[in-house]
Write the structure tokens for this entry.
Amino acid sequence: MSHFFAHMARMKLIQRWPLMRNIERENVAEHSQQVAMVTHLLALIKNTLYGGKVNPAEAALLALYHDASEVITGDMPTPVKYFNPDIAKEYKKIECFAEQKLLHMLPPPLRAGYIPLLDSEHMDEEYKSLVKDADTLCAYIKCLEELSAGNHEFTLAKRRLESSIEKRKTPEMNYFITHFLPSFELTLDEISEDDTDL
């Protein structure tokens, strides 16, 4: 008997942003789906406009599992996780332990297929970077949504993420920011208007 997918089903029970007041709560399953969609898009932009050679479907699949270890560790708030280098290093060890625990829940014949998705030491670096870019953009989108709803709890998180985006910014991220990001600050009526000028 394998408990792997029973654990994966618990992603929806893990709340993100646990130290902050949220107008709209977000769980790890929802976040992972959004990161997968944005990763897929970043990969398409990279290939179509900037000469990339990545597989968008493979990148999106990696994104779906990028926070899988949190079904064991829970979601550690970023300010705590990166409070100092020692904490970050120790938490990385905990994440690696959780990744191995999940892999060993799978029947042995299937494990090899999940190593590139769950074991951070064996992930393709280019794909991993695309997922991190998308993850950062999705966290920023969450800040925009909360601030648009009047929740100023996310003001400092937005500033911190703007700094992270500036450091990571790739051509495909810049394209996403220009063409897709502004919509997240608009109302339903505004985003329902015809956008044929694209």
Remarks:
- The two ends are 51 Å apart (CA to CA).
- The chain is about 65% helix and 0% strand.
- Residues 4-186 form a domain with the Hypothetical protein af1432 fold (CATH 1.10.3210.10).
- The mean pLDDT is 91.
